[in-house]
UniProtKB/TrEMBL annotation:
Organism of origin: Liquorilactobacillus aquaticus DSM 21051
GO cellular component, one term: cytoplasm
Residues annotated for S-adenosyl-L-methionine binding in this entry: V80, G105, I126
Main location: cytoplasm
Protein name as catalogued: Putative tRNA (cytidine(34)-2'-O)-methyltransferase
A GO biological-process term: wobble position ribose methylation
Family annotation (Gene3D superfamilies): 3.40.1280.10
HAMAP family in UniProt: tRNA_methyltr_TrmL (MF_01885)
An example molecular function term from Gene Ontology annotations: tRNA (cytidine(34)-2'-O)-methyltransferase activity
Family stated for the protein in its record: Belongs to the class IV-like SAM-binding methyltransferase superfamily. RNA methyltransferase TrmH family. TrmL subfamily.
Subcellular location: Cytoplasm
Alphabetized UniProt keyword annotations: Cytoplasm, Methyltransferase, S-adenosyl-L-methionine, Transferase, tRNA processing
Length: 170
């Protein structure tokens, strides 16, 4: 079982960099669906990801159709959208024989509406007060969703505790 974060045509390098850092810290693979709204050499992208870029497995896809062709029978796709009916906490991500792919839309427009309609049963949302904001920050949303999946999986291969001695990390 593996977890994957998929960004559809991301626009903001800082968001992608922060998500890459989350991926590095959680052993999550990152997929970027082109076109990207920035160069991967962008200084803001590198700054947000700090020195973790070599710790992230990144796969680039030419478009959404190319990405979809990579999915197999044991892959579960979840479309993250504020328009979804089911909350992200209502889904079981703990199947050992399945891979979870969480796809997030472009910061300004989200995922394409026809794609959302075709896959409505795969849509999940994070509850929010949308009378005050249009949407949650993309990198925060990715972190919330991936940590719920990891929590259900009992945080595989992640450090669960640290030993402290005299208030210092040992």
């Amino acid at each position: 079982m593996a977890n994957h974060i998929v960004l559809f045509e991301p626009l903001m390098p800082a968001n992608t960099g922060n998500i890459a850092r989350t991926c590095a810290g959680t052993n999550t693979e990152l997929h970027l669906i082109e076109p990207l709204g920035f160069s991967t050499d962008d200084k803001y992208l590198k700054r947000a990801g700090l020195d973790y870029w070599d710790k992230v497995k990144i796969t680039y896809h030419k478009n959404l159709q190319a990405f979809m062709k990579t999915l197999g029978r044991n892959d579960d796709l979840y479309l993250v959208s504020k328009f979804a009916e089911h909350a992200y906490t209502q889904v079981d991500y703990s199947h050992e024989d399945r891979n979870n792919y969480f796809i997030f839309g472009k910061e300004t427009t989200g995922l394409p509406e026809p794609f959302m309609r075709q896959n409505s049963e795969k849509c999940i949302r994070i509850p929010q007060n949308d009378t005050h904001i249009r949407a949650l920050n993309l990198s925060n949303t990715a972190a919330i969703v991936i940590y719920e999946a990891l929590r259900q999986q009992d945080f595989p291969e992640l450090e669960k505790s640290h030993i402290y001695e005299n208030d210092k990390l040992k």
